[in-house]
Amino acid sequence: xxEDGSVGxxxxxxxxxxLPGQRVSGDRSVVLDAGDGSVLFAxxxxxxxxxxxxxxxxxxxxxxADNRAEPLDVLMVLCHRAMADTRGAAVSLVLFTGxxxxxxxxxxxxxxxVVAVGPGKPAVRATALMTGGIVxxxxxxxxxxxxxxxxPGDVLVMSTDGIFSDFVDTLDLAQPTTDIxxxxxxxxxKDTDDALVLAARHRGPIAGAS
Length: 210
Ligand SMILES: [Mn+2]
What we know:
The chain is of the alpha+beta class. It has three helices and eleven strands. Strands 1-2-11-10-7-8 form a six-stranded antiparallel β-sheet, covered by helices on one side. A five-stranded antiparallel β-sheet has the order 3-4-5-6-9. Strand 1 and strand 2 form a beta hairpin. It is globular. 44% of the residues are buried. The site of manganese (II) ion has 6 residues, from loops.
């Protein structure tokens, strides 16, 4: 599975595949134009795998599409309610506001990182705090959205736990996000789970635009 596109100043791509032997993946991603130059990213990992996991992730994806302008903590609660009669899912939400800031909120095992071009190898500029829980089943009581800085050229990488998380050192940030996502999936996928990775680059203000 591969998708890519661009929204506002953001170029993004997603690569994923189902657990070998399964027809559907329970991992989903959502990229939504949230208005006013904002982009909402979500990566969802339905508990377990197969159709029941995909059903949980689909519910959350629909809720996000229908309520994209709400704050992240509200979106998390809406996802929780919508998945109440499903297995539930790990949910990570990232809002890029277009003004060099990211807001992020995650429950369960989806990793979100901002990676910057460093001297030599890429450097992790920020890592989202992961809060334990299962959205749809057990939501932690204090949902705290974090805000981090993102500079033009930085890449947001969100990955489910079907991806080994040691991919940062070998990233080639000079590549388009479509190649970044495909390379991470190809070289860091686990054989034991569905897998999905989303890469999004902040391109900064378009030259000549005011
Ligand atoms: Mn998983």
